[in-house]
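Sample intake sheet
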Amino acid sequence: MTAAGLIRSANGGRRQTLRVASFNVHMGVDGWGRHFDVVAECRALDAEVLVLQEAWTPDDGSPGTAALVASQLGYHVVAEAGLARARLYEPIGTGSSRWGPSAGQVRKTLRLDEERWKVPAGPRDRTSVRGRWGVALLARVTCRDAEVLELGQLRRDPARRAVIRCTTELDGRELVVHGTHMSHITHLSPTQYRRLARLLPPLDTPALLAGDMNMWGPPASSFFSGWRRAVIGRTWPSSRPHSQLDHILVTPSIDVVDARVAPSSGSDHRPVVATLALA
């Protein structure tokens, strides 16, 4: 596996670093269903640990988002959790330069099986493929003890939720990594946040939590006392972001060497990237 980077410390020694990224890939398509180069977007992030939300795995046996990125960029898929069964529709024919249709137009590209409100998907003969919509954790460093921790399904949410947890090493110490995609606040997600907080390790453990939290930074981090945000910047919607929904949170024993919101992508979210070291 690829080794983490190195930086020079204040006393002249060297510290190992780890670059972590979180990216909601929107199934690798825009709002019209047109495919974008998700592999190129992930290559540009150049992260040793990569958390993908809204990863798509078709039922027909062809490579899903996580498998494709892993095979092309030298990652291994640490774990993947399917959060919902869904139907992904073929692209809507358009020459528009907009990311997706306006609110008054047909705008359904993906339909989760348990959605309560069925937004029109377009013509009745518009073809679709079935598959799984979920979250994946990829790495180019050695990870062990991978597990998927269930967060359950809220009554208003058409998807169940989960957090992927694994352990890697940074400067000879264990680092616990978590990746997730949380329910929206309109689904009453605070219940789920409190459940997740009970699953996280003690504050004196080097740890990180990365994902699309579907919540702004201050309220999201308020559920995890003592954790802090590694990246601060607007991530959604990608074309003209006004809110930060995508986060990397760390415990006090983690130093943030560098952090940024990546440029606009083919998804409706901008990725977040942080280079971390032990304090």
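Comment: The helical segments are 38-45, 65-73, 190-199, 217-222. The mean pLDDT is 93.
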